[in-house]
């Protein structure tokens, strides 16, 4: 771990309950002309999104995502230069297993952070757009302000495309048909009831198990996350669903999943259940809410709240026998 900075400073947010740890200094060099190229650098030769090669940057990711400084549910981003001057900055998204191509809840947290820290000037009242280059493209976070504080963020995602419908997958709980949509990353959608489950805290162990089995059963598709959803009674504003998204190697999204909400919106539009301009109230397994809106040509908007939880100066003592830490 000698290549890891002695002190690493972070600013932490949560978006609808899902953590996001922001690092915009103390970073090792990350070669590349674009965010996508820098992600390839982070993965290393022969590495993948959930199995990156060792290196200084990955030492830092492991340090921040593992106990005792993190935990198996930690998520974060390394702030890097944008692809060009059309964006305010870029970001490499990371989690306990590696680096993702998209992260809606992280985009919302980054928008709030950019405004809260003054990196992007904003009015006391009104909205301001924060443009962010991510590995899957350019996204925009509209930061909502009132009385001098950030009250919420709505992000506009890259276009979502439907990849496949009714793909048969066999799990230990039975064979089901699943749908695939790419919304910056590839998500599988399937109703939890197909496995005799609901989306609740007591069902989490089984939901995680079947989510991992579905991802493993589709190796050719490079699935990032599996969305297990439950239909809820409609609201006066429109459709309502609850979901848990199982991503990477069994990680649980505490939020309703930002990019995953985009995938759900596109599929519901394709089913004829949502029209352009319609909204989805998307709830998480912990009861937090994103509001998703379907726009034209595969564009979606997803909004919610995000709050700063702390600032940190993490230290790695060279005599610490645990080094970068451990995962449970």
Characterise the protein shown here.
With 328 residues, the protein is of the alpha+beta class. The protein has helices at 35-43, 56-65, 104-116, 204-217, 258-270, and strands at 7-15, 18-23, 75-80, 89-95, 99-100, 126-134, 137-146, 149-156, 161-171, 174-182, 186-191, 225-235, 238-247, 251-252, 279-283, 289-294, 300-304, 306-315. A hairpin with a 2-residue loop joins strand 6 (126-134) and strand 7 (137-146).
Q: Keywords for this structure?
A:
18-stranded mixed sheet; Pro_racemase_fam; 40% strand; alpha+beta; Proline racemase family protein; 328 residues
Give the topology, please.
Layout: E1 7-15, E2 18-23, H1 35-43, H2 56-65, E3 75-80, E4 89-95, E5 99-100, H3 104-116, E6 126-134, E7 137-146, E8 149-156, E9 161-171, E10 174-182, E11 186-191, H4 204-217, E12 225-235, E13 238-247, E14 251-252, H5 258-270, E15 279-283, E16 289-294, E17 300-304, E18 306-315
Parallel strand pairs: 2-3, 4-6, 11-12, 13-15
Antiparallel strand pairs: 1-2, 1-18, 3-4, 4-5, 6-7, 7-8, 8-17, 9-10, 10-11, 12-13, 13-14, 15-16, 16-17
In short:
InterPro entries: Pro_racemase_fam (IPR008794). The chain is of the alpha+beta class and 328 residues long.
Label the structural class. alpha+beta
Number of helices: 5
Classify the helix fraction into a percent range: 10-25%
The CA-CA distance between the termini, in Å, is 20 Å
Question: Rough shape?
Answer: globular
Percent of residues in β-strands: 35-45%
Report the radius of gyration as a whole number of Å: 19 Å
- Poorly predicted sequence stretches spanning 5 or more consecutive residues: 1-5
Average predicted confidence as pLDDT: 96
Order of helices and strands: EEHHEEEHEEEEEEHEEEHEEEE
Number of strands: 18
Instruction: Profile the largest sheet.
Output: 18 strands, mixed
